[in-house]
From TrEMBL:
Gene3D superfamilies: NAD(P)-binding Rossmann-like Domain (3.40.50.720). The keyword Transmembrane helix does not apply. Keywords: NADP, Oxidoreductase, Tetrahydrobiopterin biosynthesis. One of its GO terms (molecular function) is 6,7-dihydropteridine reductase activity. InterPro entries: NAD(P)-bd_dom_sf, Sc_DH/Rdtase_CS, SDR_fam. This is Dihydropteridine reductase. One of its GO terms (biological process) is L-phenylalanine catabolic process. Belongs to the short-chain dehydrogenases/reductases (SDR) family. Homodimer. One of its GO terms (cellular component) is cytoplasm. Its EC number is 1.5.1.34.
Amino acid sequence: MTSRIVVYGGSGALGRAIVSTFIKKQWAVTSIDFFANQEATTNVLLEKSDSLEEQGKRVVDAIPGPIDAIVCVAGGWAGGNAASNGKPYGGLLTLTGAYPAQKGTPFMIGYGMAKAAVHQLVASLAGPDSGIPADAKVNAILPVTLDTPMNRSGMPNADFTSWTPCSEVAETIYGWATNAIPLTSGKLVEIVTKDSKTTYTEK
């Protein structure tokens, strides 16, 4: 049976890398975004004029049956009760936090607040009675700087050896989704790259 993954933000830089990686691994990939990802198996296109409730209904209606993994690499997530996601016997839910948001971010307050909320959501979902399946695992990736075309355009003189390639993050998420890489539910995973070598540390 073909494994299935849903990628929120599948047309962004990291989203495209994740879609591409899982397609190559012969998974069925559903991309959810405002723009289509032609490489994905299926696209669920959202309308910016939709309310969060309307977006959630559009997603739920488009994805019947069990799924193996949900990865959110968009700026936010909308959907139903946590109990409606994932397989009854387990699965993976990965959200995107941020390394700097583990402490105060006076230079980017709004961003820090939003990402800190993601960190709290992970802790809540990993706790008892959260509504996710008992065998499911949830975590958040905390990158410092991802190596994306937009970041390169905005910071052309930066040290790119300290930036994390999106394809590498995608391979790690694939390892979590297939249990090839051990994962503790409820953890924030710091992603730090130095001299082109990346380390993943659970917090």
